[in-house]
Amino acid sequence: MQIGRRAALALPASAVLAGRPRRAGAGETVRLGLLHTLSPAPFYLAQEHGLWTGEGIGVEFRFFEAALPIAAAAVAGDIDVGVTALTGGFFSLAGKGALQVIGGGLHEQKGVELTAFLVSRQAHAAGLTDISKMPGHSFGLTQYGSSFHYMMGWLAQARGFDIRSVTLRPLQTTGNMAAAVRSGQVDASMAIASVARPLIASGEVKRLGWVGDEVPYQITALFTTRAMIAGRADALRRFCRGYQAGVAEYREAFFHPGSVGGRATESAIAAIEKYVFTSDPDAAAKIREGVGWYDEGAALDTADVRAQLAWFTAQNMVKGPIDAAAIIDTAFLPTR
Amino acid sequence: MSRLDGPVAFRARGFAARDIPAASVATLVGLVLLWQAAASLGWMSTTFLSDPAAIGRGLWQLARSGELWANLSVSLQRLAIGWTVGTMAGLAVGLAIGLFTVARSPGMAVVAALFPIPKIALVPLFIIWFGIGEGSKLVTLGFGVFFPTIINTVAGIDGVPRALIRMGQAFNLPWRSIVLKIVLPGALPSILAGFRITTSTAIILLVAAEMIGAEKGIGAFVLQAGNLYDIDNLLAGLVVLSLLGLAVSWGLGRLERALLAWR
Amino acid sequence: MTASAIRLTARGIGHAYRDLVVLEGIDLDAAPGEVTVLVGPSGCGKSTLLGILGGLLAPTQGEVRLDGELAPDCLNSVTTVFQDASLLPWRSVAKNVSLVLEDSPLPRAERAARVAEVLAQTGLADFAGAWPRQLSGGMRQRLGIARALAVRPAVLLMDEPLSALDAQSRALLLDDFAALIAGAGVTCVYVTHHLAEAVRLGHTIVVLSRRPGRIRAVLRIDRPIEGRHAEEPALVAMQARLWALIRDDAARAEREIADV
Ligand SMILES: Nc1ncnc2c1ncn2[C@@H]1O[C@H](COP(=O)(O)OP(=O)(O)OP(=O)(O)O)[C@@H](O)[C@H]1O
Ligand SMILES: [Mg+2]
Question: For labeling, which of A155, A253, C31, C126 is most exposed (least CB within 10 Å)?
Fold first, then answer.
């Protein structure tokens, strides 16, 4: 049980804090829901480097297998904050009034190779050499309403074709997506860089582009519950400051021209390795290849969140109308 | 010594559960009404559990827009083909196991080994073997139906009284006639009881079968509604599955009454 | 219409279920058109022997032969009637009879005629459309006989066909059976526990010893079956002789079985 082990790793930090003198919010434990992947790396840094301890709070990691259950767990009161992809399901839940988006997470950024748009060798040979030729082809995604669905929709809009002309194949997992495009069961799909690069290099699939070069996209975001904002705003503020410090270390380690490859990078990789690619000899390389963009100060791309909500609503995947202002709270972290 | 003075009390009460068809309808209707009342009177929040009226409205809209039929027809077709193929294969193998020594032990060993495997876990493999299209979906359904059919067929055949088969042999009936006129009809009650299980299994597996690569279908629709936290549609889809189950169960009841009138 | 005239001979029949020797050195002659009754203590191997005679059981020793003239309308030379009648519950009375004719080359009309004929003979004509579960025990046994007669057997083997019935039904049916068997003119081997049945039906009565079953005595009653009454002094005397032959064996057999 990986999750259990991770949760156990996270426990001592909060245990140490139990006996301290406290101001408002200090000494509290905040439960964070997150995926067990590389994408929430700044949170790993904040935890491992004691950045929340420095703020006087403990953070307990609760790991999940999929994005949507994180939001559901917040609604159920099992976690206080979560970092997750902004999916149709997330907006539906948020629209019911319990969830508030408060900060940015992973962001597709021009020049940062994070998500690759891949086509199968067969489809490529048959003429699918540009994203604009997607009509009439199949696209593998995890689920309807997932971030892949949104990205495909956005690409369709940008290239001027109707997403309904693409056959969407829900495959549930990113592993299935990669397998399906490799074997030609779907014509096209997407994969994160660390998965995509070896496939491209071996010629098993062709890359038609990096999503970040096409779409400015707030992939994941930090959210919390209304109850948390109402009742434990001070702890939440401390949590956000620790998170920002984590983002700062992360950016310095992986995106700051002056420091990449130096001591900061090494220490960041050492911290992240405790959560992903554990005991993988290539961990350092995989982390360096796989990290994605976080905006400075963990800023939230509110304009894009609004655009996403509008798109999901227009696609009738989110039963609107949901007022974007009602599900975004910018009092805790900056905006982009 | 104690004295007895009085009538013999009736003591053969109970142990005679009867079917009252009206009661089954009344129970289901009553539960739905209770649910509606709880929602209408504010006893429960409808944020995360829609009330029957909302589900009904959702269903009506889905029906009017044609979306319901578009999904249902695809699923019905998958169910019909998957179930029929699985059942036919199961009957054939079950018959072989029930009738032939050479097939019996090897067949039962394979069944015992493969039956407990959760078919849902095999879906990713089926995708690789049978493709992302209809093949893997039909195989998932067919596979789920296959094993229970074998087990019920074999149990049915084993349950046919030896005396009846000996009677057929005493009259020198050809092997084919003994199988068709004695063994199969004798096994029919057990086989039909198996159909009740396998039709439900097929409906349950529909969601698993349509989990991967399905654009349309009630299972895919339910999954999609779940992913989107579209609770009205999620429940509407489940209601459709439930109604489908009720319809199939009713049909099987009729079939049993027609075929097993002799009981 | 001429009846078949088949003699059934068994020579040196022996049978063992694994180590349990059930029959030893059985020689049997069932004369054409006669009834041979097998009696003997419980468990002595009567059913086993009948199974061997009917080709339903392969003996470990010996051979069973049929010799004689087979009538052209005979569809199944050796036919067995079982104790429980072995009716198919999912077939109506008429269909239970037609079951044994459906694989024959008989034309459809003749099949129907035969079914009607044997049902009439056995007094079941009014029940042609009934389910077996709707029949009384006696009617079920009559149906079993009707079905057997429908194939015009040359040899009819019957294993305690009346034993499942109450005494009154048995007495009534016994006379029917006697008439049917005599009328059909078949060679018949009839197993029973009831000595009254044995003397009422048998031309030859074969007494088996307790297990391992051997032939202890063969008694003859050279009188036609028709017109016999079980209460006749001659038959009652014969019954007493039979009982004397079997009693000690039977008592011992009962104790043996209780010991098992
Ligand atoms: N299939 C079998 N396998 C093993 N033993 C058997 C089998 N059938 C019968 N026996 C045994 O063989 C012996 C003779 O059985 P059988 O049924 O022939 O006796 P029976 O004379 O017909 O008895 P009953 O008068 O009680 O009907 C009995 O001891 C019985 O237990
Ligand atoms: Mg017997």
Answer: C126
Query: Could you tell me if A191 and A208 lie in one domain?
Result: yes
Q: What ipTM score was computed for the predicted complex, to two decimals?
A: 0.89
Distance from CA of B192 to the nearest CA of C (A): 15
CA of C46 to the centre of ligand 1 (A): 8
Q: Domain check: are A206 and A121 in the same one?
A: yes
Answer yes or no: is the C-beta of C20 below 6 A from any ligand 1 atom.
yes
Residue bearing tokens 């459809």: C108
User: Residue A331: inside a domain, yes or no?
Assistant: no
Separation between Cα atoms, residue B210 and residue B74, nearest integer Å: 10
User: Residues in chain C, how many?
Assistant: 260
What confidence tens digit (pLDDT) does each residue in C174-213 have? 888 888 888 888 999 999 989 999 999 999 999 999 888 8
Note whether B224 contacts A168, CB cutoff 8 Å.
no
Q: Residue C25 — left, alpha, or beta (φ > 0 → left; ψ -120 to 50 → alpha)?
A: left
Domain boundary among A215, A230, A247: A215
| Residues A230 and A155 reside in one and the same domain | no
Average pLDDT over all residues of chain A: 88
- Give the span between the Cα atoms of A140 and A186, in whole angstroms: 6
Could you give the number of structural domains in chain A? Answer: 2
Assess if CATH 1.10.3720.10 describes domain B72-259: yes
Locate the domains of chain C by residue range: 7-74+153-259, 88-151
Position with higher pLDDT, B86 vs B134: B86
Burial C28-38 (b: 16+ CB within 10 A, else e): bebbbbbbbbb
Instruction: Kindly state whether residues A12 and A103 are assigned to the same domain.
Output: yes
Q: Looking at ligand 1, which residue's alpha carbon is closest to its atom 5?
A: C17
Q: Is A122 on the interface with B (CB under 8 A)?
A: no
Domain membership flag for residue A178: yes
The shortest CB-CB distance from B170 to any of C80, C89, C91 is to C80
With a 6 Å cutoff on the Cβ, whether C42 touches ligand 1 is yes
Q: Are residues A291 and A207 in the same domain?
A: no
CB A135 within 8 A of CB A302: no
Can you read off the two tokens belonging to residue A204? Answer: 């098993």
CB-based contact A155:A215 (threshold 8 Å): yes
Report the alpha-carbon distance of residue C194 to residue A124 in Å, rounded: 91
Tens digits of per-residue pLDDT, C89-110? 999 999 999 999 999 999 999 9
> Is there a contact between C145 and C122 (Cβ–Cβ < 8 Å)?
yes
Task: Tell me the nearest-neighbour CA distance from B29 into chain A, angstroms.
Answer: 29
Residue C257, H or E segment: helix C233-259
- Residue C213 is given by DSSP the state B
Question: Would you say domain C7-74+153-259 falls under CATH 3.90.180.10?
Answer: no
Specify the length of chain A in residues: 336
DSSP state of A328: B
Q: Considering only CB atoms, which chain A residues are within 8 Å of B74?
A: none
Question: How far is CA C68 from its chain centroid?
Answer: 20
Domains in chain B: boundaries = 72-259
- Residues of chain B in contact with residue C100, where contact means CB-CB under 8 angstroms, are 171, 173
Domain assignment of residue A144, yes or no: yes
Give residue A158's domain range: 115-215
Instruction: Give the residue with greater pLDDT, C205 vs B120.
Output: C205
Both A170 and A312 in one domain: the answer is no
The CA B254 to ligand 2 mean position distance, Å, reads: 42
Q: How many CB atoms lie within 10 A of CB A95?
A: 21
Q: How far apart are CA C177 and CA C122, in angstroms?
A: 9
CATH number at residue A275: 3.40.190.10
CB atoms closer than 10 angstroms to residue B7: 5
Asked whether residue A9 falls in the same domain as residue A87, the answer is: yes
Chain A: give the shortest CA distance to residue B229, in Å. Answer: 5
| pTM for the predicted model, two decimal places | 0.81
The reply to whether A239 and A199 lie within a common domain is no
B187 shares contact with chain A (CB less than 8 Å): no
Residues of C in contact with B177 (CB under 8 A): 102-103
